[in-house]
From TrEMBL:
This is Serine hydrolase. Pfam families: Beta-lactamase. PANTHER family: BETA-LACTAMASE FAMILY PROTEIN (AFU_ORTHOLOGUE AFUA_5G07500) (PTHR43283:SF3), BETA-LACTAMASE-RELATED (PTHR43283). It comes from the Bacteria. The lineage of its organism: Bacteria, Bacillati, Bacillota, Clostridia, Eubacteriales. It comes from Fusibacter ferrireducens.
Length: 459
């Protein structure tokens, strides 16, 4: 790696951390056999100046989904599940209208047709069930049963869909709640987490990767969780805070070291420690884009895939209270990168794109396409202005004010650069996100993308 590229990359990391008030971050780049690059900034515990290292435990949030996909594909290879069967084959309590029943494969790609739904949190469900605060929620069968009951009930109440299954990608934690239940029901173990530990975590020797929540209070080398709320930086050690009632969407905690081992599983075609966890074909199937995501990216099975020049990459991000995570790899060049940050809403995926470019001897910038502006005619403007909301809590308003088209997320005003009638760039401080707009036959905007989710127009 060129020294000037390393300097540029680290300057970018510093700028991101300063701009988004990140409290601590660890980055590790590697190939199959060795560590190629490491970088640390900030602290795992800011109040006590405790440093971060390879074995510091972080939340990894939605990176957990790729682990769940491996479990599903293991069951497929054993002949227990079939990706092309409708989900109702395996969970018959689901009652969806004809034409809106997704297959297992479509759920793996967030292409089930579901709009974002209210998050059912473990703590809320545990309280409703009267479970003691000391109960380990990650292995509680009563909570698991209640969780799938809540998710299925909400699915059965759905009257509106973002399209037919397979038509659109829209990030769905409910989909991975259903996939969690498949592992629970058909994995042959007492609980989802028992399956994951026996068939994935232990074979990979991931000793610091775990689902348990009580364990987080016993670990010494574990990060605090930081989240900026208005003008105050909240800090907590409560890893249950935003934990989903079904665990396969985001409950894992891990370290740079363990995540490096996990990423090498993809570089090594499903093999690790002389064990084959998944066939080469199954591992490859996760990286094949199944549904459109962005002009330069598609979504496979639990992984986002894209291209940097001629180099193909795959990976996934995660975000919860005090968690911003990302892992990525380039199979052709046998390089991998993991980023773990202990602060909410830090755009580490942009750091990841720059970092994987660095490892592949390219200029380490975050952009994958040029930001070029255009203009909308008046009729397009009038067909786009409005309020867009989701049951998950998104509230976005597109306005035409004195400075032009603006995107309001809550009280925050974000600048918009128009690409064409079907997409804009939404600027968030020093970065910009490619944002598609869905329109009907008359050109009226019916939904927008935000956070990889389709957010329906309300007004």
């Amino acid at each position: 790696m060129k020294k000037e590229n390393i300097n540029q990359f680290e300057s970018f990391v510093n700028e991101i951390m300063k701009t988004f008030e990140g409290q601590g971050i660890g980055i590790i780049g590697f190939d199959q056999n060795s560590v190629l690059y490491e970088y640390y900034q900030g602290y795992r515990d800011v109040e006590n100046n405790l440093p971060i290292n390879r074995n510091t435990i972080f939340g990894i949030a939605s990176i957990t989904k790729s682990y769940t996909v491996i479990a599903i594909l293991q069951l497929v290879e054993k002949g227990i599940l079939d990706l092309n069967m409708p989900i109702t084959t395996y969970i018959d309590s689901i009652k969806l209208p004809e034409g809106h029943i997704p297959t297992v494969a479509q759920l793996l790609s967030h292409a089930g047709g579901f709009y974002p739904q209210e998050r059912f949190l473990m703590k809320d469900a545990a309280k409703a069930l009267g479970l003691a605060e000391t109960v380990e929620l990650s292995k509680n069968s009563t909570l698991a049963s209640k969780g799938i009951e809540m998710v299925v009930k909400r699915i059965n109440e759905m009257k509106d869909f973002n399209g037919t299954p397979g038509q659109h990608h829209s990030y769905s934690n409910f989909s991975f709640g259903l996939l969690t239940e498949l592992v629970h029901r058909y994995g042959g173990e007492k609980h989802y987490t028992d399956y994951m530990e026996k068939h994935i975590l232990k074979p990979l020797n991931l000793t610091n990767t775990f689902f348990e929540f009580n364990r987080t209070h016993k670990e010494k080398n574990i990060t605090k969780l930081y989240e900026k709320v208005i003008d105050h930086m909240n800090v907590t050690d409560d890893y249950e805070d935003m934990g989903f009632v079904l665990l396969g969407g985001g409950a894992l905690k891990s370290t740079l070291n363990d995540m490096m081992t996990y990423t090498r599983l993809y570089l090594n075609d499903g093999k690790c420690n002389e064990k084959t966890l998944l066939s080469k074909d199954a591992i490859h199937s996760m990286t094949i884009p199944r549904v459109a995501y962005k002009p330069f990216e598609g979504y496979g099975y639990g992984l986002v895939s894209g291209k940097i020049g001629e180099i193909e990459y795959a990976g996934h991000s995660g975000g919860l209270t005090g968690v911003s995570s990302y892992f990525v790899f380039t199979k052709a060049t046998q390089k991998g990168l993991v980023i773990l940050c202990n602060t909410s809403n830090v755009p580490v995926s942009s750091i990841g794109i720059a970092g994987i470019k660095l490892l592949n001897d390219q200029k380490p910038d975050w952009q994958q396409m040029d930001i070029i502006g255009s203009e909308w005619p008046r009729n397009i403007i009038e067909n786009t202005l409005g309020i867009y909301e989701s049951d998950e809590g998104a509230h976005i308003e597109i306005k035409d004010d004195v400075t032009g088209i603006a995107w309001f997320s809550g009280e925050e005003r974000l600048k918009v650069t128009i690409i064409d009638e079907h997409a804009v760039w939404v600027h968030n401080k020093i970065l910009a996100s490619y944002t598609p707009i869905l329109r009907d036959a008359q050109g009226r905007a019916t939904a927008i993308y935000s956070g990889s989710r389709i957010i329906k127009r309300k007004l």
